[in-house]
Amino acid sequence: MKATKVFVTGGTGFVGKAVIHALQTHNYLVRCLVRPGSEGRLKGFEAIERVPGDVRAPEGLSTLMEGCHAVIHLVGIIREQLLRGVTFDRLHGLATRNVLAATKAAGISRYLQMSALGTRRDARARYHQTKWRAEEEIRATGLQWTIFKPSIIYGPGDEFISMLAKMVRRLPVVPVLGDGRYRLQPIAVEQVAEGFVRALEKPNSVHHTYEVGGPKAHAMNEILDLIGECIGKSPVRKLHVSLGMIQPAVRLLGRVPFFPITSDQLLMLEEDNTCDSTAFYQDFDLKPMEFSEGLHRMFHLGGN
């Protein structure tokens, strides 16, 4: 039976807006938790129901979920802002515990969560460690949960691929951390969003954790070359910067908001971010989209 109304956290974010659009396309009603001050980010989604709240404040959260048939929890951060109290422990751990408790208190059984590829018990980065602990708390509940662990997600309005494209467009030489051979498996945001929505209709996805990536892994050097080809700036000249050279600066300035990379992100760069996404595509009847096709959609059809 299709869920009539779905409660979404993190709906004002890049992935969240794509998930809301996919839910509407599938004729779901959407109730979105909106942190006060971020209402403007949902411009163009007039048909959804907005309720003010914060996943870090559990009071009244279950009441806001009443009448919904499923919860999709998308809140997460890639970088901490300590002065604002925005930390991995609070946004990954505390927030997930609050949403899980509210989901159960509201009598909702279906729960979907976005985690991240690379999240595992023995992870080195705190980002992955806190995501893993959140996953473990989900698995310990009696909810009908599904967890998605995506690689780099791209599309109009993203941060990573759009940032690389700006560098390729504007710089005569693009700096690349390390040798550029570390591999990522970028996936289009619309495919991730479609997976979330189809999971609501696929009972076989309950109690499953899906690793999510594009059909092929690409080295960072290749990603830059593909972006250059797509936007007409080929070949892309690269300047490889030794990780050993940048580590002292990262240790010193990594927590400063304007500095482009943190120690945690540097740790994540030192390992491949790849997976076998066969189950994701098969279980949700999705056709894998090649990265080159996704880039064409992003830059020539999506307005970037």
Structural account:
It is a single chain. With 304 residues, this protein is of the alpha/beta class. The protein has a domain at 5-154 and 187-213 and 274-288: NAD(P)-binding Rossmann-like Domain (Rossmann fold). Helix content is 39%, strand content 17%. The protein is built from eleven helices and 13 strands. The strands form four sheets. A seven-stranded parallel sheet has the order 3-2-1-4-5-6-11, with helices on both faces. It has a two-stranded parallel sheet with strand order 7-10. The longest helix is centred in the first third of the chain and has 18 residues, at 88-105.
Write the layout of secondary structure elements.
Blueprint: E1 5-9, H1 14-25, E2 29-34, E3 49-52, H2 61-65, E4 70-73, H3 88-105, E5 110-114, H4 126-139, E6 144-150, E7 153-154, H5 160-170, E8 174-177, E9 183-184, E10 187-188, H6 189-199, E11 208-212, E12 218-219, H7 220-231, E13 238-241, H8 243-253, H9 263-269, H10 278-283, H11 291-301
Parallel strand pairs: 1-2, 1-4, 2-3, 4-5, 5-6, 6-11, 7-10, 8-13
Antiparallel strand pairs: 9-12
Task: Looking at this protein, list some descriptive labels.
alpha/beta; 304 residues; two-stranded parallel ribbon; 39% helix; Rossmann fold; globular
Summarize the structure.
The chain is of the alpha/beta class and 304 residues long.
Report the CATH topology name of the domain at 5-154 and 187-213 and 274-288.
Rossmann fold
Overall spatial form: globular
Helix content range: 25-40%
Secondary structure tally: strands: 13
Structural class: alpha/beta
Q: What's the main sheet like?
A: 7 strands, parallel
Mean pLDDT: 94
Give the termini distance in whole angstroms.
38 Å
Query: Which series of helices and strands comes N to C?
Result: EHEEHEHEHEEHEEEHEEHEHHHH
β-strand percent reads 15-25%
Strand arrangement within the widest β-sheet reads 3-2-1-4-5-6-11
* CATH class bucket of the domain at 5-154 and 187-213 and 274-288: Alpha Beta
CATH architecture of the domain at 5-154 and 187-213 and 274-288: 3-Layer(aba) Sandwich
Number of helices: 11
In the predicted model, the low-confidence regions spanning at least 5 consecutive residues are: none
Cα-based radius of gyration, to the nearest Å? 19 Å
CATH superfamily of the domain at 5-154 and 187-213 and 274-288: NAD(P)-binding Rossmann-like Domain
